[in-house]
Amino acid sequence: MSATDGDHEGQKPKGVFSTLMADGDWLYLKGEYKKAIDSFTTALTLKPDEKSCFVGRSKCYLRLGQPENALKDAEASLKEDKTFFEGLYQKAEALYYMGEFEFALVFYHRGQRLRPQIQEFRLGIQKAQDAIENSVGSPSSAKLEIKGDLSFLQKDEERAQPIAAIQHLTKEKKQQTQKTPKSEKTTKQLLGEFYSDKKYLENLLKDEDLVKGRTKGGEQLQDVIQSCLTYLDTCTEFWNQEKPIGAQERDRKLMQQKCSKPRLSAPSEPAQFLLKSLDDIDAELTSGNAEGSLKKAKEVMKTVQGWSVKDVPNKKEVLGSLHSCIGNALIDLGDMDKAIDHHQKDLELAKQCNLPEAMSRALDNIGRVYAQIGQFPQAIEFWEKKIPLVCGGLEKAWLFHEIGWCYLELNHPKEARDYGIRSVAAADEIADEKWQINANVLVAQSDMKLGNFESCVANFERALTQAKLQEDDSAMNAIQKVSTLLSSDSLFHLLSSI
């Protein structure tokens, strides 16, 4: 093997890594968090210290309800650069969802000092402060002592073992909980429908013969049952910190004063019920069980439709989200007509409530369905309505490319080229190599149909150069296949020599 070949092989992972990162980011945006984790994990085998990759995977873990794993990845992203603001934010978010509000507040503050213009840090500070006040009361009622390990407050140093410190803190909290156990009434109110599960598991532990058995995987049943009970206890602690039962009772009394009729048609905590239900619906669809997701969404919708606006003030917004879930499940099941109906209902409810994000979601889904069934004019119509609602660079690059592709399918190369150029600009702005390649190919194809052969060659060359820089063989092969559509032998010769 020549030295040149050796260099070529040494650079090959670069293109693969970029593609895996782009796939992970895109899968995250689509809500396919488990698949995104797989992409980020594979990417990390190529570049084990890439901090952006750790952040991407951390975000996915957080969405899947695994804050401990999210924290580990956030810590890893900060290993070489303690001022990496994205890592700081992910660390703060993971700590918050672990119920470690005080630690989360420290890192929200640190991030805000580094990047005061980023609104997420300010919002994080506010929600962490609210959670702390709900848990221990207002700051004026608490006496703070200056002692212990305060190294996490130092400007340029990081605590050596943050996860261990949190585990230690959790242990202390459990010891405190054992000293001051909650009443059964309080536990029942906090756990809600899970309280009966807790009692059932506690009764199982009393069966000495049963707990000595083992699962098919070899785990002792006593350990399995105990871990479930520990998890429920942790949930109880977290929900009590988020909003103590005293605060819940106060809010309930205030609500009874405002409303003369008792709340009979909705559960005592509609928000908690809805959040869990939407997570379950999303989890079913993400795991590939579209039928299960559809069934669950329909059941929840029937329940919500029976509630009054007093029960759930944002009832229309909730129904819109459920229509969106049903529509997405129907897409996976291939029932496109019914899918469009539900996404249209989502759009109407979003308009009634003036919810830009929900409108953008519905327009995106409607356009996607029309594009999949080959009705490109309709896809363009709805996607173009979405443009003013898009903020992120990646979403812009994708949307402009898809609209341009639809115009190209309709043999409108001028419009296709215009959107291709806009997609290039959006991809360049965020330095996304994957969409830079896709957008340049779209522009080149449009130029070819317009007869702008010189510009066509230049854009194909740009796309090929970007693919070569990444050593992305699949992209290079795809571009070469597209380039064979050129009718001019001289032009094809130019492309072949690049």
Give a written overview of the molecule:
The protein has 498 residues and is mainly alpha-helical. Among the domains are: 182-255, no CATH class; 269-389, Tetratricopeptide repeat domain (Serine Threonine Protein Phosphatase 5, Tetratricopeptide repeat, Alpha Horseshoe), CATH 1.25.40.10. It contains 26 helices and no strands. It has helices spanning 3-11, 13-29, 33-46, 51-63, 67-77, 85-97, 101-114, 119-136, 162-179, 184-191, 195-205, 208-211, 221-242, 245-258, 270-286, 290-305, 315-333, 336-353, 356-372, 376-386, 393-409, 413-430, 433-450, 453-469, 473-483, 489-496. α6 (85-97) packs parallel to α8, α15 packs antiparallel against α16 (290-305) and α18 packs antiparallel against α19 (356-372). The longest helix has 22 residues, at 221-242. The chain starts with a helix and ends with a helix. Mean pLDDT is 75; it is low at 1-12, 138-181, 242-268 and 487-498.
CATH class of the domain at 269-389, named Mainly Alpha
Question: Tally the helices: what do you get?
Answer: 26
Helix content: over 70%
Structural class, judged by helices and strands?
A: mainly alpha
Instruction: Return the CATH topology of the domain at 269-389.
Output: Serine Threonine Protein Phosphatase 5, Tetratricopeptide repeat
Q: Count the E strands.
A: 0
CATH architecture of the domain at 269-389: Alpha Horseshoe
